[in-house]
Design goal:
With 87 residues, this protein is an all-beta fold. The protein has no helices and eight strands. The strands form two sheets. Strands 7-6-5-4-8 form a five-stranded antiparallel β-sheet, with no helix packed on it. The relative contact order is 0.25.
Length: 87
Amino acid sequence: MLYEHTRGWLRTVKNSEVDELEIRVGEVYRIEPPNPQCLRHRGRLCRVVGYQDLGIAPKVGRNAAKVRFLDNKRPGLIDLTDLVRVA
Protein backbone atom coordinates (compact mmCIF):
# COMPACT_ATOMS: atom_id res chain seq x y z
CA MET A 1 0.00 0.00 0.00
CA LEU A 2 1.37 3.39 -0.99
CA TYR A 3 0.78 6.51 1.08
CA GLU A 4 1.62 9.90 -0.34
CA HIS A 5 1.34 12.91 1.96
CA THR A 6 1.59 16.36 0.41
CA ARG A 7 0.04 19.76 1.05
CA GLY A 8 -2.52 18.78 3.66
CA TRP A 9 -4.00 15.70 2.00
CA LEU A 10 -3.14 12.03 1.76
CA ARG A 11 -3.59 9.74 -1.24
CA THR A 12 -3.81 5.97 -0.75
CA VAL A 13 -3.39 3.48 -3.61
CA LYS A 14 -3.79 -0.28 -3.12
CA ASN A 15 -1.85 -2.63 -5.43
CA SER A 16 -2.06 -0.27 -8.43
CA GLU A 17 -5.88 -0.49 -8.41
CA VAL A 18 -7.87 2.37 -9.89
CA ASP A 19 -9.58 2.98 -6.54
CA GLU A 20 -7.91 5.91 -4.75
CA LEU A 21 -8.78 7.43 -1.42
CA GLU A 22 -7.99 11.08 -0.86
CA ILE A 23 -8.15 12.19 2.76
CA ARG A 24 -7.94 15.92 3.41
CA VAL A 25 -7.21 17.58 6.73
CA GLY A 26 -10.23 19.48 8.05
CA GLU A 27 -12.91 17.51 6.17
CA VAL A 28 -15.63 15.37 7.76
CA TYR A 29 -15.63 11.57 7.29
CA ARG A 30 -17.75 8.64 8.47
CA ILE A 31 -16.01 5.59 9.93
CA GLU A 32 -16.98 2.42 8.03
CA PRO A 33 -14.41 -0.38 8.41
CA PRO A 34 -14.31 -2.80 5.45
CA ASN A 35 -14.47 -5.76 7.85
CA PRO A 36 -18.15 -6.24 8.85
CA GLN A 37 -17.14 -7.75 12.21
CA CYS A 38 -15.24 -4.63 13.26
CA LEU A 39 -17.81 -2.59 15.19
CA ARG A 40 -15.61 -0.07 17.00
CA HIS A 41 -16.51 3.51 15.98
CA ARG A 42 -18.66 2.23 13.08
CA GLY A 43 -21.02 4.93 11.81
CA ARG A 44 -19.45 7.78 13.80
CA LEU A 45 -18.63 11.10 12.18
CA CYS A 46 -15.20 12.64 12.64
CA ARG A 47 -13.01 15.48 11.36
CA VAL A 48 -9.43 14.67 10.28
CA VAL A 49 -6.88 16.87 12.06
CA GLY A 50 -3.65 15.19 10.91
CA TYR A 51 -1.76 12.00 10.11
CA GLN A 52 0.49 9.76 12.14
CA ASP A 53 2.92 7.00 11.11
CA LEU A 54 2.66 4.43 13.89
CA GLY A 55 4.96 1.74 12.61
CA ILE A 56 3.48 -1.45 14.03
CA ALA A 57 0.66 -0.64 16.44
CA PRO A 58 -2.14 -2.80 17.86
CA LYS A 59 -5.67 -2.36 16.45
CA VAL A 60 -4.64 0.47 14.13
CA GLY A 61 -3.01 0.09 10.72
CA ARG A 62 0.50 1.22 9.86
CA ASN A 63 -0.62 4.74 9.02
CA ALA A 64 -3.51 6.35 10.85
CA ALA A 65 -5.49 9.55 10.77
CA LYS A 66 -5.70 11.74 13.85
CA VAL A 67 -9.38 12.60 14.17
CA ARG A 68 -11.77 14.49 16.43
CA PHE A 69 -15.17 12.86 16.82
CA LEU A 70 -18.08 15.23 16.20
CA ASP A 71 -20.42 13.67 18.78
CA ASN A 72 -18.23 14.18 21.86
CA LYS A 73 -15.22 16.25 20.63
CA ARG A 74 -12.72 13.60 21.80
CA PRO A 75 -9.57 12.78 19.79
CA GLY A 76 -8.79 9.37 18.30
CA LEU A 77 -6.68 7.41 15.82
CA ILE A 78 -8.40 5.69 12.93
CA ASP A 79 -7.00 3.44 10.20
CA LEU A 80 -7.02 5.26 6.87
CA THR A 81 -8.94 2.49 5.11
CA ASP A 82 -11.86 2.90 7.56
CA LEU A 83 -12.70 6.47 6.48
CA VAL A 84 -15.49 7.21 4.01
CA ARG A 85 -16.20 10.72 2.71
CA VAL A 86 -19.55 12.19 3.81
CA ALA A 87 -21.49 13.50 0.80
